[in-house]
Amino acid sequence: xxxxxxxxxxxxxxxxxxxxxxxxxxxxxxxxxxxxxxxxxxxxxxxxxxxxxxxxxxxxxxxxxxxxxxxxxxxxxxxxxxxxxxxxxxxxxxxxxxxxxxxxxxxxxxxxxxxxxxxxxxxxxxxxxxxxxxxxxxxxxxxxxxxxxxxxxxxxxxxxxxxxxxxxxxxxxxxxxxx
Length: 179
Ligand code: HEM
Known about the structure:
The chain has helices at residues 3-17, 19-27, 45-59, 63-81, 83-87, 92-97, 99-110, 140-153, and strands at residues 118-124, 128-134, 158-164, 171-178. With 179 residues, it is α+β, with helices and mostly antiparallel strands. The protein is globular. It starts with a helix and ends with a strand.
């Protein structure tokens, strides 16, 4: 997993829960990196699983809810760091249906070792987009939050529901309805 995800995650933890919480979750995890991350580095996904799990334990907030909130913070950083990618779009439905064919393709050019999910568009109309998320990392709640933020970014709103196609969350169907 890319360092930018870790640095943004720890920044969010500091912002919402304080620097002590950052220390606590790093100390209670077994991290090869010792909790020191650089934006361009690559680290084991297992480190994120531990940090997220320990934050969940400390705060009594479910990991999926923490990921959803994290998405808000992460989206703002992605939009700032990659304005060229965001500015290609004027419509959130267009952006979301192009993650697989454009956005993450560009991300892969920047970070050849990025571990990205797969999004498959199942159906698309003016008001509804159905797409399947697939990833061994089961970060569908992060995806859910990023989708919601995509709508906020364009000052639009949507009802976004999902259904797990696999119980472990490695395959999830999203239904996005423009409001
Ligand atoms: C992961 C970039 C938009 C869904 C990632 C990663 C990067 C990235 C760098 C981490 C890869 C790694 O750690 O190895 C971007 C950029 C975007 C963008 C630059 C826009 C300019 C989106 C949007 C969604 C999305 C709109 C909404 C569904 C995800 C998910 C992951 C991810 C769910 C986690 C990895 C996984 O589930 O396996 N993205 N992304 N991304 N991205 Fe994007």
